[in-house]
């Protein structure tokens, strides 16, 4: 882990020319560095117009310095912000000079995400909020910005903490009676343990729903198109893309097929991967693309199994089994009968009621298909009130839900074990704690912050 004591420095603004470029320094005590840079002390939270000089006295830049005395700062340490003119060469010179003058105080260039990491380690924000900062900066849509802003304000964290608090209360109750085993049944009744557990589970379910929406908005949906050759995968991809193209990113794969396409349905980003591109190849570039497609399949949120509606169901049994084997365990599969325009009416009447019939050619059934896609991935249709969430959060919420479920089982009639009941509550609590960063494994922390850019 990159937990180090040294003061750090980085350019906080984006590369390129701009009116203003901000350099940020954070450290336990910046008095020595400030003195070395400007030969004076700065009053906290006051903008001061200053000039930074070369060693020979030449001016490098006239800038505005703002000093935040720790702990009342973003990182919780002393923070110095230098608002320079926003030229890349100029900022490099200022950085160089700061590093020279700050050398005695141990000033070093910041690692990616290190400012935010320090804010987290100094309890200025929790982990979900730190992640929300990255999400806010990376947000690709208005809804994603709003979601990240809500999470950064602590909406998500507060919900999590409330749940943890309620579980804690329940645990305290249970654990205080563990020494009196003969009273287990009476305890469950008098403490209304089952009712309280049910309430916590219900709240968790609501939270999972909200987090699922947030994850969908942030990451989009990975939709995989699978099916035999010639059933109309490419036609369906074009049909879906043609109507609602948001960002088109064709990746060169086979000569005829686009392998990947990003569209949006009802404002929800959907990445469609056509498995037609998945085949053995000796072409290095193509192999790379295929590797990426497999990665996408392993992360699929939904698989569309496209069939020719005229083919009898059982003829596709082998392919159906193959697809089910290749996808993640909880990934839903939507079976579609394409080329419905070629079906006689009498055939449709006897067709499998589970199958949705469409025509990539005429557009028949495509609106139904879109609605079905959104429903199957758990999109609730609301952009309002969404929080920013990641797969990591969803996994924790899911595991917490499983432990609560287990916990309930140990309080069920005829199978009561308060010890196991309490233990499952503790495990659920641990999972929730990982979201906000309590009880987080160290390697995970490094992984999360290394995804930040430098200067954040
Ligand atoms: P892929 O190999 O699964 O990607 O299939 P293609 O999209 O390349 O389509 C194979 C053939 O089926 C093409 O000649 C398409 O024009 C035709 N096709 C695709 N969808 C439909 C459809 O809904 N109705 C009809 N009549 N033909 C279709
Ligand atoms: Zn194709």
From TrEMBL:
Pfam families: MMR_HSR1, MnmE_helical, TrmE_N. One of its GO terms (cellular component) is cytosol. Gene3D superfamilies: P-loop containing nucleotide triphosphate hydrolases (3.40.50.300), Probable tRNA modification gtpase trme, domain 1 (3.30.1360.120), tRNA modification GTPase MnmE domain 2 (1.20.120.430). It is found in: Cytoplasm. It comes from the Bacteria. Residues 220-378 form the TrmE-type G domain. The keyword RNA-binding does not apply. One of its GO terms (molecular function) is metal ion binding. GO terms for biological process: tRNA methylation; tRNA wobble uridine modification. InterPro entries: G_TrmE, GTP-bd, GTP-bd_TrmE_N, GTPase_MnmE, MnmE_dom2, MnmE_helical, P-loop_NTPase, Small_GTP-bd. GTP binds at residues 230-235, 249-255, 274-277, 338-341. Its EC number is 3.6.-.-. K(+) binds at residues 230, 249, 251, 254. (6S)-5-formyl-5,6,7,8-tetrahydrofolate binds at residues 24, 81, 124, 456. Its cofactor is K(+). Binds 1 potassium ion per subunit. Its main location: cytoplasm. The keyword Metal-binding applies. Homodimer. Heterotetramer of two MnmE and two MnmG subunits. Exhibits a very high intrinsic GTPase hydrolysis rate. Involved in the addition of a carboxymethylaminomethyl (cmnm) group at the wobble position (U34) of certain tRNAs, forming tRNA-cmnm(5)s(2)U34. Belongs to the TRAFAC class TrmE-Era-EngA-EngB-Septin-like GTPase superfamily. TrmE GTPase family. This is tRNA modification GTPase MnmE. The lineage of its organism: Bacteria, Pseudomonadati, Pseudomonadota, Betaproteobacteria, Burkholderiales. The gene is mnmE.
